[in-house]
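Sequence, please.
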């Protein structure tokens, strides 16, 4: 049993993060931990594997108590996959990264090789085994971090937002891994903001105010309005699932077809369709040239290590609208974002905005990893840097920064803190605020909701809509297409380093086949909507 009892914890010069938190994970059990950004979930995860020590309370693994002399045992027995994969990657090649943990366990070379092979296969990384770690996409790096921990074969796994940067197919792969790990008798504690992760769990915990405020089954959570409000989960798809659960359906484990049949039998079809309708899209100015990437090609590396990231890519985002870009990890989406923002020079025509060549700074680019763009000693200084660099006076830059932070829901109490000392979700909000404060004419947001709780996701969608309504071109690169389908005017599907299909969302719906054609699993809300529409 992995057990944390009455845990108290505070970081230096900070208020208490955990106030009497207690939880248990049994061998073979899959437990999901929910809560709003900054509530202490990641801190609890670090305590669970002995990375940090509690100020009070006990951490135990199968009866052994965490203490300074037993920390190595905890590292071996409680595997921890962090929210940011690059924070735990330590070698240059994929194969060496997976082998790092087993080698440090002083295993025989043959056993190390066996474990590396199994972990690479389990995480679908075999074909990338000889690639450089830094050439991988964010989603591929996350699978690599998972593989490195799996290869150590711990008794318990702690997964901190491991699905946030993964595409839908990779999320299914991780879900299957978790099922197999649990079936083998290992316990899993998973921190998440994704409702599909919740539906797969044996038990759900909700954190609030530094302690566990609620626990129960996935269906019990959907039926409990107060617990659901504390969970950090939000969205039209969640509302539809909650409506089904409160009508008496056991939603966990059910597929879209079963949900649709239940809804029709109970006369809930129209209500669910209304819940899935979302906020309503902005109609872009199709006559404008907007932000355009035309015939762009780009490759990383040289010779045998050369990897084509873009191949004659064409991407067009009209002004006054939101354009979605979806595709599997490694398909070229992030590279296209860098080209669109003028930060990467590709072969072919340069990116243009309203017919003019894009220069660095013309397009606001939010990076997939917020830590890559946070650099100042305080939140306010970080967000005000961009507008000041674009020529605003200090007082005006300060005002613009404060407005952007408020719009993204960053509490004023955090303004003086170092942004890198914040939780993952809070860092994401600060990074997004820094881009919005630049007041550009076009924006590219690369995985803007990864790691955000439900409230943060709603705020991000409202920001994107506001920017579109004021006439800006807005591009959202996302693995969470279901959150954006009802806001966007078009969706571009990317595969094999190019846009292979575009759908005008003002006149047509994307289909399950559109997602499957680029190696993705169609969002649950879309599948449920197809069932309801017959």
């Amino acid at each position: 049993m992995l057990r944390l009892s009455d845990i108290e914890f505070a970081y230096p010069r900070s208020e208490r993060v955990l106030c009497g938190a207690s939880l248990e994970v049994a061998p073979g059990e899959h437990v999901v931990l929910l809560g709003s950004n900054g509530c202490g979930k990641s801190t609890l995860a670090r305590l669970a594997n002995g990375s940090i020590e509690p100020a009070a309370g006990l951490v135990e693994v199968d009866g052994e108590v965490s203490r300074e002399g037993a920390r190595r045992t905890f590292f071996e027995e409680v595997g921890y996959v962090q929210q940011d994969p690059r924070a735990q990657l330590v070698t240059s090649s994929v194969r060496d990264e997976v082998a790092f943990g087993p080698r440090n366990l002083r295993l025989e070379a043959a056993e190390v090789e066996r474990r590396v092979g199994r972990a690479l296969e389990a995480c679908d990384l075999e074909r990338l085994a000889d690639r450089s770690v830094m050439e991988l996409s964010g989603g591929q790096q996350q699978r690599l971090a998972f593989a490195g921990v799996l290869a150590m074969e711990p008794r318990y796994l702690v997964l901190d937002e491991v699905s946030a940067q993964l595409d839908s197919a990779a999320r299914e792969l991780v879900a299957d891994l978790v099922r197999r790990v649990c079936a083998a008798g290992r316990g899993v504690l998973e921190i998440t903001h994704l409702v599909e992760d919740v539906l797969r769990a044996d038990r759900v915990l909700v954190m609030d105010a530094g302690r566990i405020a609620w626990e129960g089954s996935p269906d019990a959570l959907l039926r409990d309005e107060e617990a659901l409000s504390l969970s950090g989960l939000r969205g039209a798809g969640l509302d539809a699932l909650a409506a089904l659960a409160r009508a008496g359906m056991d939603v966990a484990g059910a597929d879209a077809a079963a949900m649709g049949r239940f809804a029709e039998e109970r006369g809930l079809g129209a209500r669910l369709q209304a819940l899935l309708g979302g906020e309503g899209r902005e109609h872009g100015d199709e006559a404008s040239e907007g932000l355009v990437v035309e015939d762009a090609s780009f490759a990383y590396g040289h010779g045998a290590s050369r990897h084509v990231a873009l191949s004659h890519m064409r991407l067009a985002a009209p002004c006054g609208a939101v354009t979605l870009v979806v595709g599997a990890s490694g398909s070229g989406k992030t590279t296209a974002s860098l080209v669109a923002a003028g930060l990467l020079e590709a072969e072919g025509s340069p990116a243009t905005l309203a017919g003019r060549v894009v220069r660095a700074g013309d397009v606001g680019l939010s990076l997939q990893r917020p830590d890559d763009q946070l650099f100042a000693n305080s939140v306010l200084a970080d967000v005000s840097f961009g507008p000041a660099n674009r020529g605003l006076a200090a007082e005006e830059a300060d005002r613009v920064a404060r407005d952007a932070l408020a719009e993204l829901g960053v509490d004023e109490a955090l303004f003086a803190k170092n942004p890198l000392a914040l939780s993952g979700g809070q860092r994401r909000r600060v990074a997004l605020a820094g881009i919005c404060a630049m007041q550009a004419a076009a924006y590219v947001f690369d995985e803007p909701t990864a790691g955000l709780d439900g409230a943060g996701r709603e705020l991000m969608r409202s920001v994107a809509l506001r920017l579109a309504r004021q006439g800006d071109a807005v591009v959202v690169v996302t693995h969470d297409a279901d959150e954006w389908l009802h806001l966007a005017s078009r969706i571009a599907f990317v595969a094999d380093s190019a846009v292979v299909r575009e759908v005008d969302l003002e006149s047509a719906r994307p289909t399950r086949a559109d997602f499957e054609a680029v190696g993705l699993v169609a969002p649950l809300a879309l599948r449920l909507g197809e069932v309801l529409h017959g």
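The first helix runs from residue 41 to 48.
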